Amino acid sequence: MSATDIHAEATKITDAKQRYKAGVLKYRQMGYWQPDYVPRDTDVLCLFRITPQEGVDPVEAAAAVAGESSTATWTVVWTDRLTACDSYRAKAYRVEPVPGTAGQYFAWVAYDLILFEEGSIANMTASLIGNVFSFKPLKAARLEDIRIPVAYVKTFKGPPTGLIVERERLDKFGRPLLGATTKPKLGLSGRNYGRVVYEGLKGGLDFMKDDENINSQPFMHWRDRFLYVMDAVNKASAATGEVKGSYLNVTAATMEDMYERAEFAKELGSVIVMIDLVIGYTAIQSMSNWARKNDMILHLHRAGHGTYTRQKNHGVSFRVIAKWMRLAGVDHIHAGTAVGKLEGDPLTVQGYYNVCRESYNPVDLPRGIFFEQDWADLKKVMPVASGGIHAGQMHQLIDLFGDDVVLQFGGGTIGHPAGIQAGAVANRVALEAMVKARNEGRDIRQEGPEILKRAAQFCTPLKQALDTWGEITFNYAPTDTSDFATTPSVA
Amino acid sequence: MITNPTGRITQGQFSFLPDLTDDEITAQIEYGLRKGYAWSVEYTDDPHPRNTYWDMFGMPMFDLRDAAGVMQELRECRKTFQGHYIRMVAFDSTRGIESITMSFIVNRPPTEPGFGLERQEAEGRTLRYTVKSYATDRPENERYS
Question: CA of A22, closest CA in chain B: separation in Å?
Answer without folding.
Answer: 55
